[in-house]
TrEMBL record:
This is FAD/FMN-containing dehydrogenase. Residues 155-325 form the FAD-binding PCMH-type domain. The lineage of its organism: Bacteria, Bacillati, Actinomycetota, Actinomycetes, Pseudonocardiales. It comes from Saccharothrix carnea. Keywords: FAD, Flavoprotein, Oxidoreductase. The keyword Oxidoreductase applies. One of its GO terms (molecular function) is FAD binding.
Length: 571
């Protein structure tokens, strides 16, 4: 994410001598400017996660005129790493006018890209010399694919280089090299972070090739490489009819998933992905490799179960305790929009009383130009007949437009529930609730979906109640770093747009989501799921980590005292 603090800007092309010095604290941005025709000027405003500034300004000219207005400044990066701001401005009052100007950054201190630029070919060659994996620079074949954030909201964040590590030794050497060169370094697993946390402007360690999966059928222990993706792991488990909780998107990486907890459609029966973790190997900030488990480096093991990816080191492998695969059935039921309140009300109650074998996502959503839809998508570790009985109150509450309830093998169920999003840019915000939402809470969700401002992304916007609880809540809050052990529903609110849509569309969508998240504060708690990473959260430490925040900070100080692994919401 762009930080404007300390940056200087002037009119593009050298300007008339007016220079503004910017400051930033969180999303608050302000600047003073003087020089040229301006005796004194100030701007104050806010910065969006994508770096767009919304500012109000006042200035006194040498002529004595006092001028005020507002601007929307969209950043672009020049090849040398400096920023250019495309500024749409509007003046108020006697001087009313509007237009577009460009501001360019004046070099003050070496930016990250200048530092990485100063690494030069010899520097990158120095890294190449000590690693076995392939180092890619911008323009190289595969550079984009191995560094692009899944969420295109952050597509402008591009690294200086990507190293596809060949093994744990590469990770250690690359971290050592990056520290020496002063280049920021970040691990990339599946690249699916909602907040683009696996890309930076320095060196990305692409773990994609660490994707071995070894299943020991005699112990049901499954060891997977730190960059393995869901599909690869499912395929290996399927051969042995063994299972541990995983999500249903092919390309989500195991690293991000398990380190932040990992919630699956079977978590009410089997716990979180991190609850099945028995050990993990990490390369630490000093380049050393450690194994951690309940008995070895237990504090680090504790933190790796739900504290969030990218904080303590680079995990190069994970070992899970799998179990025999159970039988399953699945449901997909849709209702027309007028039934939203009835279905939500009844389904909350159905899920409150449901056995742990049944889990469902209850959704309300809408794509542009279409009516809203109510959906229940779930899996039951039992026969379809039982599932139909469990759903009977909801089926009776309102006539569904589609009902698909069927027996499936576990693997057929995984394929059936498999989902990919349309991609593009998106934002997700979450809250938690330990009990069903009140009628007003539900109505707030439904009304918001009605009022969604729209975008061209076919995923549209919506809200979902993910049923948690069950085996997730059997684990005490402080036993692992994952703190949400008293939750019945994760309340997830999302919106999506296309990356090239107008800034007003993006702003409209983010404002809509912000307002909905704020309004739901009356009905749900401030707790938030670290893996549904929300770069706009204010008190993210408390929201993500709850009572485990202080202990996580201690573990961070112990294993990464120099904060080599750093990002905007790093512990
Ligand atoms: C389409 C989609 C479906 C999803 N489904 C689910 C779901 O069913 N259940 C659920 O709980 N979540 C789900 N998520 C959220 C998902 O768990 C998080 O986005 C997760 O962080 C993605 O992991 P990743 O490795 O793909 O992401 P990345 O962007 O590569 O990594 C995320 C963070 O983890 C760090 N990291 C990744 N690998 C490692 C490693 N080996 N060692 C150290 N740090 C590492 C990165 O540095 C970054 O900080 C989904 C997300 C998407 C986009």
């Amino acid at each position: 994410m762009i930080n404007y603090d300390g940056r200087l800007f002037r009119k593009a092309g050298g300007g008339d001598g007016t220079v503004a010095q910017y400051h930033q604290d969180g999303d608050l941005v302000w600047a003073d400017f003087t020089g040229g025709k301006v005796r004194r000027g100030t701007v104050t405003g806010v910065c969006s996660p994508d770096g767009t500034l919304r500012l109000a300004y006042t200035m006194v000219l040498g002529t004595g005129e006092v001028i005020s207005g507002h601007t929307v400044n969209v950043p672009q990066q020049r090849p040398d790493g400096r920023l250019v701001l495309r500024e749409e401005w509007q003046r108020f009052g006697d001087h009313a006018a509007s237009g577009v100007s460009y501001l360019e950054e004046v070099p003050t201190r070496p930016s990250v890209s200048e530092r990485t630029g100063s690494v030069g070919m010899t520097g990158w060659d120095g890294l190449r010399d000590v690693v076995d994996g392939r180092l890619r620079l911008p323009g190289d074949d595969g550079f984009e694919e191995r560094s692009r954030p899944f969420n295109e909201r952050f597509r402008d964040v591009r690294p200086a280089a990507v190293l596809s590590v060949a093994g744990p030794d590469d990770v250690g050497r690359a971290i050592g090299w990056a520290r020496e060169a002063g280049v920021p370094v970040v691990a990339r697993g599946g690249g699916h972070s909602y907040a683009g946390n696996s890309v930076n402007r320095g060196l990305v360690l692409d773990l994609q090739d660490l994707d071995d999966v070894h299943v020991d059928p005699s112990t049901a222990l499954v060891t997977v490489g730190g960059g393995a993706r869901t599909r690869r792991i499912y395929d290996a488990l399927r051969e042995h009819d063994l299972v541990f909780p995983l999500g249903n998107s092919d390309d989500v990486g195991i690293g991000g998933l398990v380190l932040g907890g990992g919630v699956s459609v079977v978590s009410r029966a089997m716990g979180l992905t991190c609850d099945s973790l028995v050990s993990t190997d990490l390369v630490l900030a000093d380049g050393s490799t450690v194994t951690c488990s309940e008995t070895e480096n237990p504090d680090l093991f504790w933190a790796c179960r739900g504290g969030g990816g990218g904080n303590f080191g680079v995990n190069t492998s994970f070992t899970f305790q799998a179990r025999p695969v159970p039988a399953a059935s699945t449901c997909l039921v849709l209702w027309d929009w007028p039934h939203a309140m009835d279905v939500l009300t009844v389904m909350q109650e159905v899920m409150r009383l449901a056995p742990n074998a049944f889990s469902a996502r209850i959704g309300v959503s809408r794509a542009a130009g279409q009516a809203g839809v109510v959906s229940v998508v779930g899996q039951h570790l039992g026969p379809a007949e039982e599932l139909r009985e469990l759903l009977a109150p909801a089926l009776a509450a309102a006539p569904p437009s589609r009902v698909d309830i069927a027996d499936r093998t576990y693997w057929e169920a995984a394929d059936y529930l498999h989902h990919e999003t349309a991609g593009g840019a998106f934002a997700v915000r979450t809250r938690c609730t330990p009990e069903p939402l009140s009628e007003d809470g539900l109505r707030t969700l439904v009304t918001a979906v009605d009022k969604w401002p729209g975008s061209a992304n076919p995923d549209g916007a919506g809200a979902a109640l993910f049923t948690w609880g069950g085996a997730i809540n059997d684990v005490p809050v402080t036993e692992t770093a994952f703190p949400h052990r008293d939750v019945l529903f994760l309340v997830s609110m999302d919106t999506a747009w296309l990356p090239d849509e107008a800034p007003e569309v993006v702003r409209g969508n983010l404002d809509w989501l912000h307002d909905l998240h704020r309004d739901m504060g009356e009905y749900a708690t401030g707790a938030s799921y670290v893996n549904f990473t929300d770069p706009d959260l204010d008190d993210w430490r408390a929201a993500y980590h709850g009572p485990n925040a202080d202990r996580l900070a201690e573990v961070k100080r112990r294993y990464d005292p120099d904060r080599v692994f750093s990002f905007s919401q790093a512990i």
